[in-house]
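WARN  no MSA supplied for this record, continuing single-sequence
INFO  ligand: flavin-adenine dinucleotide
INFO  echoing inputs
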Amino acid sequence: MTDNIDATILIVGAGPAGSTAAYFLARAGVDVLLVDQATFPRDKSCGDSISPGAVEILDKMGLTDWANLKGYARNIGYRLSSPNGSVAYIPFPARFSPYPNYLIPRHEFDHALVQHAVSAGARLREGVRLTGFERISADLVQVTGTEGKTPISLTAKLVIAADGSISAFTSRRGMVPGPADGLALRQYYSNVAGEPGLFELHWEKSVLPAYGFIFHMNDGIAVFGTGMFRKDQQRLKANIQERLTTFMTQNPFARDALRKAQAISPVAGHPYRDDAELVKSYADNLMLVGDAAGTGHPMTGEGIGPAMVSAELAARYAVEALQKGDVSESGLAGYGLAFHKQFDSLHKISQLARNALTFPWVVDRTVRRCAKDPVFGAAMAGILAGMVSPGEMLKPGMALRLLAG
Ligand SMILES: Cc1cc2nc3c(=O)[nH]c(=O)nc-3n(C[C@H](O)[C@H](O)[C@H](O)COP(=O)(O)OP(=O)(O)OC[C@H]3O[C@@H](n4cnc5c(N)ncnc54)[C@H](O)[C@@H]3O)c2cc1C
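INFO  complex generated
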C-alpha cells in the first residue's frame, strides 16, 4: 500500500521547527519532504533573537560557524526599565551557557536552516499550502492543499506539522485548546542610536501589562516591538498597533533611540502560542512541533529555541517509530512523554512569572533589584535569555532579595 508514497515523512512548514526536524531526519537517512506555502528566503515577524538554547541546536547541526562568520550582533546585555522609572543594565550572563545569543534577521536565519536541511538530504517543495489530513491506513496518510490555485495531494507514512501558530492541522483536529493566545508586532528602523547587541525591555506605563522591546542589530538597525495576550487585549480593548506607536513615542529610551531613525519596514505581526502543556503533541501518523504545538516561552516570548528543541525530539522519536514499524498514536507516545517533560513544568512556572510581572510594583522591585544586586541581575538576565528557569526567582534566596527591594 505504501510503495508509491511521496515521502516517508512529510513536514508541513519550513520555519525553524520544520527545517530542524527535516535536518535531523535526513541525517538519520529518512526520506523526508519539507513543504512550505512560502518561497524562501521569506520573512517572519520576529524580534530575531536566536537564544543560546537555539544556538546549542545550531551547533549540533554544524551551523555555528555560519553564524560566527556572518558576524551577527551578539547579546551584550540588557537594559530594563520599570513603570516608576527604575533602570537597570545587566551584562549578558555568559556563565550560564557556552553559547551566545545572536540577533539574526529571520529571512536570513530561516533560509540558512532550510538550505542546511536540503544539503543534509531533505527534499523541499515551496509555494505549496497543505491543510487537509486523512488517515488512509496504518502507515499511509493523505495530505491535501493547493499549489497556487491547483489542488494538490501528497502521501506519506507520517506527517510532522510545523506550520506555526495558526496551524491548520492542530486547530482542525482539536489538538490545541483554542486559537493562539498572544499577538506580537514588530518594526525595523535604521539609524537607531544604541550599541549592537543591546537588548532593551521597557515596562512602559502606557503599554502595561506588556512591555516594549528594542533589540539593536549591527549598522544602526534595530527592531522595535511589543505583544499582548488575548485576555488582556479584550479586557483593555487594546489596539496593539497603537500601543507599539505609543511605546515608540512616549518611552524615553525608545524616543532617544529613534531621534534620527527611519522606518525600514512596515509594522508586521503574528499570533503567538505558548500553551504546550495543554497540547496533544501526537496522534496516529501525526506529530506537532514548534509554534504549532505551543512551545513558545510564556514569559519571554522566545519561540525559536523551543521550536528547534521540540523538532529535534520529534525527529528522534519519529526515527524510532519507523524502525519499530509503528507510527500509530501508541507508537509515537514516547514523543508525547518527552515533549511534556521538556515543556510542562517550565511553562507552568513561566506563566506564574509572567502573571507576576503584570503588577507594576513587582516590575519596579525587580528592575530596582537588578540594578543594585549583580547576583539577582544575572539570574534575571539568564531567565530573559532562556538559560535559567523563572523558577530560580522562587527559590528562597532570590525571593528574599526581591522582597528586600
Ligand atoms: C513579533 C514577534 C516577535 C518575536 N520575537 C522572537 C524572538 O526574538 N526570538 C524568538 O525566539 N522568538 C520570537 N518570536 C516567536 C517566533 O517567531 C516563533 O516562535 C517561531 O517562528 C516558531 O517557529 P516555527 O517553525 O514553529 O513556526 P514559523 O516560524 O511560524 O514557521 C511556520 C512555517 O510554516 C509555513 N506554513 C504555515 N501554514 C502552512 C500550510 N498550511 N502549508 C504549508 N506551509 C505552511 C509558514 O509559511 C512558515 O514558514 C516572536 C514572535 C513574534 C510574532
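The chain has a mean pLDDT of 95.
INFO  checksum written, moving to next record
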